[in-house]
Amino acid sequence: MDENNSTLLNLRTIEPSDFKQLAALEDLVFPDVGGAWPKSTIQGLVKHFPDGQICIEDKGKIIAAALTIKVSYNRYSLNHTYLDIVDANNVACHNPDGDALYGLDVFVHPDYRGLRLGRRLYEARKELCRANNLKAILAGGRIPGYHKYADEMHVSEYIAKVKRREIHDPILSFQLSNDFDVKRLMNRYLPEDAKSKGYATLLEWDNIFYEEDISIHQTEKTLIRLGIVQWHMRRVVSVDDLMNQAEFFVSSLSKYQSDFALFPEFFNAPLMGLARDKDSVEAIRYLSQFTEEIRHRFSQLAVTYNINIIAGSMPYLKGDKLYNVSYLLHRDGDIDEQYKIHITPHEVRDWVIDGGDKVKVFETDAGRIGILICYDVEFPELGRLLADQGVQILFVPFWTDTKNGYLRVRICGQARAIENECYVALGGSVGNLPRVDNVDIQYAQSAVFSPSDVYFPHDAIITEANANTEMIIFADVDLSKLKLLHNEGSVTNLKHRRLDLYKMKTKKRNKKKH
């Protein structure tokens, strides 16, 4: 490379007229395995799959290139040889109807190594794979460093050491650093490859966005709009009065095409003001008498306004036990419920509420969601249970009276978003109810949190309300970004859990005598 002139790189597809430059570059890079391919091979690739043949040039000089074909995944994800890819007449076995890419070659001029040009070519291949909705990129990877160790270790041990970075292999180390996985070892892949002793690794990069052929009606929605109601507790004179307030917010959120409307925990508490002569235990049971009617009316609103509603939470009397229950009212008329699991000392002492015993993820037309009511979000085990069920959005209806109580919910909600790689939406209430015991003051700042990585806002806060002000907030969340995070994030918390260690510790604790 001419150090007196600055490098000017350009990535483009290869043209038939580029053969002379490509041949010279291949001869330079691959002298040990035959050098350049015949002109007919390159011309055939450019003719039959032009988008798969890419190069990088510096001021018109080709300095790096990648050659690619399409193949059947089911065939070439199994054991094969180089002759299955390029036949004896040097014709590449390109399948125009293939559902995977196969990397034939990537080569970079020695003078330009260190500029990460190979990574650029690999990224271009990945974009091609995504753009064409193909399953994966496959490649038969040479291991040219193996001949140095062949007398002292088996090839499988060599590959394991390269994976652990105890040994550097010029090709395999590079491919592993570009998110490829070794799927199998192939013997006699290229017998004349003396440095690799004829071996090759079958490498695979999966396209996490690949979708089977499905109708447009079956396509999973990925961009979801959340609407959160920061609800003002005010005196009401009837259920109609309460529901008129609720319908105003549902209607407003629907006008903005929200997929969800989240209400706070015990949003219907103002109805307890209709029973001022009752003590706290009697008052909360009095409130539970309205739950079925409110649930039914919210379900009608969900269908009428075409929006999924998380109706905060309400007290529900089942037999002689009282529970704190959140209802998910689907816009198709279905109804799901989530019982609060962990009951606060206040709920036990003043209202005699019992806890539920299971959490589950609900399938909706706008993603897989979970609901943790207020105190429940402060227990990481529940979030993990939902993460194991594939939760994408976690809704947290809450009621807190003080800022420190609110901060417990907020900080734990942010932690659940990070550790479970999901979105978390908090919705709380503001205002005062001076004539209602135990729900007399409110503090809230509703918000929507994301995981913390490059795909999301720098502070992992998508939106938040003004503290202690009645309002609605919106947040657009992209579920496809969660897929990227799960597979290619800077850190992947779910993948890196040490379940062997956690199970071991749990076992020891259970054996301890008390």
From TrEMBL:
Domain N-acetyltransferase: 9-168
Keywords, comma-separated and alphabetical: Hydrolase
Molecular function per GO: acyltransferase activity, transferring groups other than amino-acyl groups; hydrolase activity
Domain CN hydrolase per the UniProt entry, residue ranges: 224-479
PROSITE patterns, alphabetized: CN_HYDROLASE, GNAT, UPF0012
Keyword Hydrolase applies: yes
Gene3D superfamilies: 3.40.630.30, Carbon-nitrogen hydrolase (3.60.110.10)
CDD domains assigned to the protein according to its UniProt record, in alphabetical order: NAT_SF (cd04301), nitrilase_Rim1_like (cd07574)
Pfam families given in the database record: Acetyltransf_1 (PF00583), CN_hydrolase (PF00795)
Domain of life: Bacteria
Family: Belongs to the carbon-nitrogen hydrolase superfamily. NIT1/NIT2 family.
Protein name: Hydrolase
Organism: Photobacterium halotolerans
